[in-house]
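Bit of a strange request maybe. I'm writing a small parser for structure token strings and I need a real example to test against, not something I typed by hand. Could someone generate the tokens for this chain?
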Amino acid sequence: MRPYFERMPTFGKALKESRITRTLASRQGLEGVEAEIARLAAARREVGLPDAEINKRGALTVWQRLGYLVDPGTWHPLHSLYDPEENAEGTTNVVDGLARIAGRWAVVIGFDNKVLAGAWIPGQSENILRVTDIAQRLRLPLVWLVNCSGVKLPEQERFYGGRRGGGTPFYRHAELQQLGIPVLAGIYGTNPAGGGYQAISPTILIAHKDANIAVGGVGIVSGMAPKGGFDAAVLEDLIARTRDMRERPPGSVATHFEHTGFFTRVYDEELGVLDGIKDYMRALPAYDPMMFRVAAPAEPLYPASDLYHLLPFDQGETYSFDDVLARLVDGSEAMEFRPDYGPEVFTGLVKIDGFLVGVIGNRQGVLPRGYPEYADYPGIGGKLYRQGLIKMSEFVTHCGRDRVPIVWFQDTTGIDVGEIAERAELLGLGQSLIYSIQSTDVPMMLAVLRKGSAAAHYIMGGPTANRHNAFTVGTAATEIYVMHGETAAVATYARRAVKDKDAGKPLGPIADKMNEMARSYHERSRPAWCARHGLVDEIVALTSLRGYLAAFAGAAYQNPGSLCARHQMLLPRLIRG
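Reply from user aminoacidic:
Good idea to test on real output. This should exercise your parser:
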């Protein structure tokens, strides 16, 4: 297949050959936001007890366990800032990401035992559900580091019940197993109640010698059968029973390894548990990469550091999407699908770490004269028109047929609007693209380069594509909102301004409200805000973006549920004609 894949046409220009109009301020803006994101992530790692205090107790922290478990250089964190409930702790109390373990990709998640001994807290179940979604979409094993003290009781009403409450992940674990996706658990410490179910719901349970899992822990069991209140006599009895239970806690290794047999292995050392996980990972099904690579892995022709000049921090500046993509894909090569149709959108095949991947992205700048063909106004890149919507739907459909995973790159202001656009069927074509995506059943990833806005954010493989979008990353330039803040202010207050004007009222108060709304939109669309509230799964440095693309591609091809032989693919033949 060398004519199709090994020698794709190169594209994108070297930086020295392109128009360098990017200012130093733009690069400083991007790097400044990246530094702030890194600072926030580092601060979150330090919440709770110091590492030394955990180590003094004879335990490792979740970060130390991860450092030993995952293959060096393969950790790609997700949800580093996620905290939708804005907890006092500043965390959901779980750490997760994509990584290789013993050479195989996995979704990895662990309780932060530095914070409340790994307790359930608000927002955590939603974090876990996102992680199980990734494992399901990419058909990857889910690896748990369980060290969970159960519910943070004073705040139980915020996360215990409901359709997506604390117990929902247990059903998700069952669902993964029914789909043939194993859940592996390394179990440490005391895990009562909810922690017990976190430990028992996986497929394989590997325990440290001091671990226990139980329906109820010491505090629950010793406090059973309440007497309607508390007094000194009740407390004396409670103290005696609690001391006795601490000597013989329920659910110890003696129970669950020697009696129930729940634990498949028990290790005296913490690192032994992690070695046991590695053993099981080696036993799991995974294709050798040679099965699906269409060419040897190759670096882009141009350095990723160019991206700080090519991607403007100023949302009003335009840039070449092709030049950006050339810094991210193997050999800076691509086979573009229908290049002369729907010019506001790039669609094409690329290679990432030798794997074939479909790419869709918004082009920027003024579009060719006479486009869109249905209107008498000029087309502007970033906006979607009739041909672009049709082209994306066709490309997605062909990728689904050929079983090619897709990476979306968004920098969009939305779909064309107005009566002319309605007559051109844009509303229906947007939903047609959603239907095409939902029909593919191939993994997808989204990178929001700058703007994710209006309905275009939904239809271009956004997080709302729950069964297809494995995860979404953003950059230091990312903004996500239904529309620009000033546009939203006009939509909200324009009629009120007309009424006040006609009534002879001063317009200053309306202007103040409009400015406040625009400011609020700006503050609530910043990269850190998007990460904290889950609009993206991670904000990624531009120099790290290719690593996430490679992780996605490697994970998508590790154990796919279906495949198409490369010589039976239709899409590359359509491109070549």
